[in-house]
Amino acid sequence: MTENLAMDRIKHxxxxxxxxxxxxxxxVFPQCGFSAAVVQILNHMGVKYSSTDVLEDPEVRQGxxxxxxxxxxxxxxxxxxxxxxxxxxxxMFEAGELEDYFDKAGVLRES
Amino acid sequence: xxxxxKIHSILSQALKPISIxxxxxxxxxxxxxxxxxxxxxxxxLEIISEEFTNKTRVDRERLIHSLLADEFAAGLHSISxxxxxxxxx
Lengths: 111, 89
Fold this sequence. Notes:
The complex is a heterodimer of chains A (111) and B (89). Chain A is of the alpha+beta class. Chain A contains 5 helices and 4 strands. Chain A has one domain (3-101): Glutaredoxin. In chain A, strands 2-1-3-4 form a 4-stranded mixed sheet. In chain A, a hairpin with a 2-residue loop joins strand 3 (75-78) and strand 4. The longest helix of chain A has 14 residues, at 3-16. With 89 residues, chain B is of the alpha+beta class. Chain B has a single domain (3-84), classed as BolA-like (GMP Synthetase, Chain A, domain 3, 2-Layer Sandwich), CATH 3.30.300. Helix content of chain B is 33%, strand content 22%. Chain B has helices at 3-15, 57-67, 69-73; strands at residues 19-24, 42-48, 78-84. Chain B is elongated and about 40 Å long. The interface between A and B is medium-sized, with 19 and 16 residues.
């Protein structure tokens, strides 16, 4: 796959999915502690999300870093907007801001 | 120079932090796909600087990432960041 196709796929995923997580491994088997932490937060909050395992595609793995000018994974996007990586999500969650963020973005949560 | 010291000096110069604490967590990530075994891949940073005032969390981290771009290119894999401003509530 060429770089542009990878970039197109990233854009498509970010726009098509209200909550989109780029991570290492899958939500069931995260391959990295930081990805696992974000999965845990999202699951805890009852948020429905889609995910992509960047380890399966080196071009997506590099592409997602270029896409948001953000050098690390995981990365979470909500309604097309980059929210942050593990540290930011953890801080937002602990401060109760993440809940507000999802509510304001109109993301449904199961409680 | 060790990467930890390098990171410390780059951030100290650019951000004039009120406080800065960096820990090398590489040992915790041994066996991880990207950890070469040589260490100096994973760090944890706690930093307080006026430079972060009125900046969002994303912007604060971006600023740090951009200052450390050369280190990322040279094998730094991740830096866990807690960036605060003295004016945060």
